[in-house]
Amino acid sequence: MSQALQQNQHLNMVRHPQMLARAEEIAPELYHRDIFPQAIVSAQKDEQKIHGWRPERVNTAAGFLQQEFAQGEHVIIDFGEHCVGYLEFACESVGSPPDAPAHLQFIFGETLAEVVEPFSDYSGWLSSSWLQQQDCYLDELPHRMRLPRRYCCRYLRINIVALSRKFRLRFTSLKLDTVTSASLVALPQCQTMDHPLKRIDEVAIHTLKNCMQEVFEDGPKRDRRLWLGDLRLQALVNDVTVKNYPLVKRCLYLFAAMTREDGMLSANIFVKPQVIADDTFLFDYALFFVDVLQDYAAATHDRQTLAELWPVAWQQIEIALARVGENGIVRDSSDWWSFIDWHEDLNKQAASQGVLIYCLNKALMLARLYDTGKVAFLEEQISSLKTASLRELWDAQSGFFTSGESRQISCASQVWLVLADVGTVESQQQLLVRLKSHPPEIQMNTPYMMHHYVAALLHVNEIEQATEEIKGYWGAMVEHGADTFWELFDPQRPDFSPYGSKLINSYCHAWSCTPSWFIRKYLL
Amino acid sequence: MSQALQQNQHLNMVRHPQMLARAEEIAPELYHRDIFPQAIVSAQKDEQKIHGWRPERVNTAAGFLQQEFAQGEHVIIDFGEHCVGYLEFACESVGSPPDAPAHLQFIFGETLAEVVEPFSDYSGWLSSSWLQQQDCYLDELPHRMRLPRRYCCRYLRINIVALSRKFRLRFTSLKLDTVTSASLVALPQCQTMDHPLKRIDEVAIHTLKNCMQEVFEDGPKRDRRLWLGDLRLQALVNDVTVKNYPLVKRCLYLFAAMTREDGMLSANIFVKPQVIADDTFLFDYALFFVDVLQDYAAATHDRQTLAELWPVAWQQIEIALARVGENGIVRDSSDWWSFIDWHEDLNKQAASQGVLIYCLNKALMLARLYDTGKVAFLEEQISSLKTASLRELWDAQSGFFTSGESRQISCASQVWLVLADVGTVESQQQLLVRLKSHPPEIQMNTPYMMHHYVAALLHVNEIEQATEEIKGYWGAMVEHGADTFWELFDPQRPDFSPYGSKLINSYCHAWSCTPSWFIRKYLL
Question: Residues in domain Glycosyl hydrolase family 78 alpha-rhamnosidase N-terminal (chains A, B) (predicted)?
Answer without folding.
Answer: 37-177
